[in-house]
Amino acid sequence: MRFHIITIFPGIFDSYLKESIIGRAIKNKIISVNFYNPRDYVKGNKSNYKPVDGRPYGGGAGMVLQAEPILKSFSKIEGKIKNKKRKVVLFSAKGKFFNQKMAYKWAHKYEEIVFISGRYEGIDERVRQALKAEEISIGPYVLTDGDVAAMVVSSAVIRLMPGVIRLESLEEESHWNLLLKKEKDSKVGESGLEYPHYTRPEILKYKGKKYRVPKVLLSGHRAKIEEWRKGQNKK
């Protein structure tokens, strides 16, 4: 299996991937991990700084990662992925809660998994729309970034792959037994922690399609914006 991770801080993973079970899985060529930095697809300014974020439409605290650098990173991945057995995951506080059943399914169903790691206030919603990515959360709390979530999920998936851990070791685990009982997946948006974010440009063009920022976020009407955001939380 190949993992493709889109992140603006790929160095965070260096030590984690060299150690223990995951390190051995890479050494034994059971898996490979590739990184794609959105900054590599942005022109630097006079001081050679490469911005990949922007202020959110509709106002609010923090910055939002722009769609275009991430989509360009994904285009690089597409050139390497020929097999259709692939999964695109976007880590978000408003996503479906990740669980052991999902880890088992991904470990045995897919050959290519793409992780999109967010940071700051979040990722422009149009990335999810354009790539048809599944939003995943690792729990009812907010992290500083999606890199930690990528480590958690990759660890859960990798250890269930054939040849990584002995079957007898897995069968002794309580979560493995839950799998055998066919526990149901967590519900989407159960935590209700987040709403979609958008930043520049107002109209995103990708593969012949146009993805627009919702009009309410451009209105400047604070009450309507808050109402829209609350409505998104409940979906």
From TrEMBL:
<dbReference type="InterPro" id="IPR016009">
    <property type="entry name" value="tRNA_MeTrfase_TRMD/TRM10"/>
</dbReference>
<dbReference type="InterPro" id="IPR029026">
    <property type="entry name" value="tRNA_m1G_MTases_N"/>
</dbReference>
<dbReference type="GO" id="GO:0052906">
    <property type="term" value="F:tRNA (guanine(37)-N1)-methyltransferase activity"/>
</dbReference>
<keyword id="KW-0949">S-adenosyl-L-methionine</keyword>
<feature type="domain" description="tRNA methyltransferase TRMD/TRM10-type">
    <location>
        <begin position="1"/>
        <end position="234"/>
    </location>
</feature>
<dbReference type="InterPro" id="IPR029028">
    <property type="entry name" value="Alpha/beta_knot_MTases"/>
</dbReference>
<keyword id="KW-0819">tRNA processing</keyword>
<dbReference type="GO" id="GO:0005829">
    <property type="term" value="C:cytosol"/>
</dbReference>
<comment type="similarity">
    <text>Belongs to the RNA methyltransferase TrmD family.</text>
</comment>
<dbReference type="InterPro" id="IPR002649">
    <property type="entry name" value="tRNA_m1G_MeTrfase_TrmD"/>
</dbReference>
<keyword id="KW-0489">Methyltransferase</keyword>
<comment type="function">
    <text>Specifically methylates guanosine-37 in various tRNAs.</text>
</comment>
<feature type="binding site">
    <location>
        <position position="118"/>
    </location>
    <ligand>
        <name>S-adenosyl-L-methionine</name>
    </ligand>
</feature>
<dbReference type="GO" id="GO:0002939">
    <property type="term" value="P:tRNA N1-guanine methylation"/>
</dbReference>
<comment type="subunit">
    <text>Homodimer.</text>
</comment>
<keyword id="KW-0963">Cytoplasm</keyword>
<keyword id="KW-0808">Transferase</keyword>
<protein>
    <recommendedName>
        <fullName>tRNA (guanine-N(1)-)-methyltransferase</fullName>
        <ecNumber>2.1.1.228</ecNumber>
    </recommendedName>
</protein>
<dbReference type="InterPro" id="IPR023148">
    <property type="entry name" value="tRNA_m1G_MeTrfase_C_sf"/>
</dbReference>
<dbReference type="Pfam" id="PF01746">
    <property type="entry name" value="tRNA_m1G_MT"/>
</dbReference>
